[in-house]
Give the backbone structure.
Amino acid sequence: MIENIVGVIVGVIFWGGIIVGIPWLMSHLQKKARKRAAEKEIICPNPNCGYKGKPKIKKCFSVTVFIILWLLGIFPALLYVILVRDKILCPKCGMTAREFLE
Ligand SMILES: [Zn+2]
């Protein structure tokens, strides 16, 4: 009887930790990545623009959407993480930039 109760409690803590912990970790990593990206500088790939400096970050990844998908299952959530990323844009012409100046 006691073993059963302990088993249930351990199970709830374990699965609860995974269900709550993964979105929390994703949101934490996302915040860190955004902060890092905003501190770096880009060179605009548009030859007519040639902007060099701080990028504009377009927020595409939403933690709320991630949590909804996560509750639906691990695969939709995983696909969302792989496919949806924040975009790094040139603030002058709006072109998507990829390379960061180190
Ligand atoms: Zn530009």
